[in-house]
User: Which sequence fits this backbone?
């Protein structure tokens, strides 16, 4: 052992806390090393002084106070432990136990209610979707207003043209005549049909609900009769170009038609007499407003009867068929068709309400293309009634306006164009038509407004 | 006092006291009250302050003894409380001028004139020897109180409570080698300061 390793051991050696082997080695070095021995002696001397340090006794009062505090603390601990060990007693203990027993009941109940609500919602949600027929079939008030009152509720195909219009297109005279006018012009033919019509049970007024489902031509005829009977009293009823066509068809010759046209000429024009015909429920102004003259109406009554007879012979089962059949009986060409025979102008099948609007519009245009814009009027009206603000309705309004202009009814045409101008897709064309001057009417005979 | 409590380790006594046995605390008080008081006395150098600090130390033992987790020895915990209280005391009294260590001590303040039993090796029976002993004691006390604080606390914990150097290291928060080094310096200083008294003691002995 050297001094470097011995020095750290001196304190432990002085205190006797060195391991025996280390102590022996250190003592052996101390015997040989004077400096380490001197250091060791100093430590021993200091230790002796330290052991001579006087010790003072603590004050007794401090001891007593501490013991008092300790005893109080111990007593408190003992009391607390005794309280914890003893069972809790009291008035509220049973209640607390009862409540704690159902502590989780509330949470369980809420979870159960939440699950029930979720299940009910999942079950009931599909039923709340607007898929029921009742929801889909609810018509808008405007649409309902568009439909003429003559629409038979039981008629699945919708309004029969024959029920609506009481007009006949005189293709030669290029004018539209009311049923009455046609009836006057063709008395012979009118009588039998009249009688037949009279023999038949009078159907309720046009304004009133139609009798039962009028799918057959017979029912159609009754409705026509009822309509024609009430037309004078119900000026709101629109004219039916098919009726006019039938009336024209009833005319046996061109002379008859000329007579009809003469009679029509005697009646005030639609422009002169702007009978404020009650607008159609859809506020579509009548392109061919009824005139004050009631004379024109009788002229067409016979035509109505004749048309009814024709329809009966056809045995049409639906509106389109009856219309087409009646149109096919036209003997005289339509004035718009440029002199072609009526047979060539078999009116295309009118669109059914169930068709899409585009198809309805196309069908109406097809009818017009055949030279019978008046016959297409009901079809256009159907398109408008289905969706008054649609693009197809705008096109139908423009078509009706052009047809009205053709027949000299600029007022109606203007009103229709103004309506069409509110529809975005047809506004430009409508406005251009509004600004364009109406076609000259001098070459045409005055349009014989239908009588309602 | 019960004999079995005297043989019980410190931590067990503390547990018993926490359970509500005041006698266990009394045994603890018996073991540590004296040395703790002298430790405090030599640290603060004022008997009244030492008494107050003594009561504070053991009051804290009473209040916090139930939370003692036995991660260290009870003596370590106890002297750590005392050391911290002494540090706080010196901070409060930092502006106070200490009584001159060179001047003669009042027997009362020093506490050495109190009727307590001397434990000086080589007790002097005659009056002259007694007076010399008293003077020696005062010199020793003065020399201890004159030690640097870090050397003094190590010296006092070792000499008054016989705490191992490793435990002192835990209380002081330093390494064991540091503690031993401080102790050697303290012993050398005491030896140097009291060399004359030692020679005197030998001469008288």
Assistant:
């Amino acid at each position: 052992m050297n001094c470097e390793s011995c020095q750290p051991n001196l304190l432990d050696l002085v205190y006797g806390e060195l391991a025996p082997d280390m102590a022996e080695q250190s003592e052996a070095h101390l015997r040989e090393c004077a400096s380490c021995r001197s250091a060791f002696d100093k430590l021993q001397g200091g230790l002796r002084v330290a052991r001579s340090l006087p010790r003072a006794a603590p004050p007794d009062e401090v001891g007593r106070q501490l013991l008092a505090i300790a005893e109080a603390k111990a007593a408190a601990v003992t009391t607390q432990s005794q309280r914890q060990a003893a069972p809790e007693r009291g008035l509220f203990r049973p209640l607390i136990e009862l409540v704690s027993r159902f502590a989780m009941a509330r949470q369980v109940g809420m979870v159960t209610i939440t699950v029930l609500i979720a299940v009910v919602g999942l079950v009931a949600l599909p039923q709340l979707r607007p898929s029921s027929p009742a929801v889909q079939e609810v018509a808008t008030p405007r649409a309902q207003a568009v439909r003429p009152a003559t629409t038979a509720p039981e008629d699945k195909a919708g309004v029969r043209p024959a029920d609506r219009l009481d007009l006949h297109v005189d293709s030669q005279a290029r004018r539209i005549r009311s049923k009455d006018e046609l009836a006057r012009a063709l008395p012979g033919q009118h009588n039998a049909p009249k009688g037949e019509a009279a023999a038949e049970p009078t159907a309720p007024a046009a304004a009133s609900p139609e009798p039962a489902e009028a799918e057959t031509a017979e029912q159609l005829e009754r409705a026509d009769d009822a309509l024609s009977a009430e037309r004078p009293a119900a000026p709101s009823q629109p004219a039916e170009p098919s009726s006019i066509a039938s009336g024209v068809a009833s005319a046996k010759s061109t002379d008859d038609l000329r007579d009809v046209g003469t009679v029509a000429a005697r009646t005030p024009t639609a422009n002169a007499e702007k009978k404020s015909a009650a607008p159609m429920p859809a506020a579509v102004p009548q392109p061919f407003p009824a005139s004050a003259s009631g004379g024109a109406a009788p002229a067409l009554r016979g035509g109505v009867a004749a048309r009814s007879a024709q329809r009966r012979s056809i045995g049409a089962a639906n509106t389109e068929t009856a219309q087409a059949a009646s149109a096919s009986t036209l003997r005289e060409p339509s004035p718009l068709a440029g002199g072609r025979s009526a047979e060539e102008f078999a009116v295309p099948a009118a669109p059914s309400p169930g068709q899409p609007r585009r198809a309805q519009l196309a069908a109406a245009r097809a009818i017009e293309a055949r030279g019978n814009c008046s016959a297409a009027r009901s079809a256009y009206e159907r398109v408008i009634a289905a969706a008054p603000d649609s693009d197809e309705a705008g096109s139908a309004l423009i078509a009706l306006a052009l047809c009205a202009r053709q027949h000299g009814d600029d007022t109606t045409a203007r009103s229709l164009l103004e309506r069409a101008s509110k529809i975005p897709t047809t506004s430009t064309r409508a406005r251009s038509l509004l600004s364009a001057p109406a076609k000259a009417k001098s070459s045409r005979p005055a349009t014989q407004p239908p009588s309602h | 006092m019960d004999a079995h409590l005297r043989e019980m380790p410190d931590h067990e006594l503390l547990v018993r006291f926490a359970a509500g046995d005041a006698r266990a605390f009394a045994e603890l008080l018996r073991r540590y009250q004296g040395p703790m008081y002298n430790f405090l006395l030599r640290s603060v150098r004022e008997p009244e302050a030492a008494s107050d600090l003594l009561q504070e130390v053991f009051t804290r033992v009473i209040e916090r003894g139930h939370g003692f987790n036995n991660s260290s020895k009870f003596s370590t915990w106890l002297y750590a409380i005392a050391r911290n209280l002494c540090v706080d005391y010196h901070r409060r009294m930092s502006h106070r001028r200490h009584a001159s260590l060179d001047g003669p001590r009042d027997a009362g303040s020093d506490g050495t004139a109190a009727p307590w039993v001397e434990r000086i090796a080589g007790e002097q029976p005659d009056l002259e020897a007694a007076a010399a002993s008293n003077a020696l004691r005062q010199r020793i006390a003065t020399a201890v109180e004159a030690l640097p604080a870090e050397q003094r606390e190590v010296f006092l914990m070792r000499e008054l409570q016989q705490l191992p150097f490793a435990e002192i290291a835990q209380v002081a928060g330093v390494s064991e080698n540091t503690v031993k080094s401080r102790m050697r310096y303290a012993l050398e200083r005491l030896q140097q300061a009291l060399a004359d008294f030692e020679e005197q003691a030998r001469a008288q002995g």
Observations:
- The first helix of chain A runs from residue 3 to 6.
- The mean pLDDT of chain A is 67.
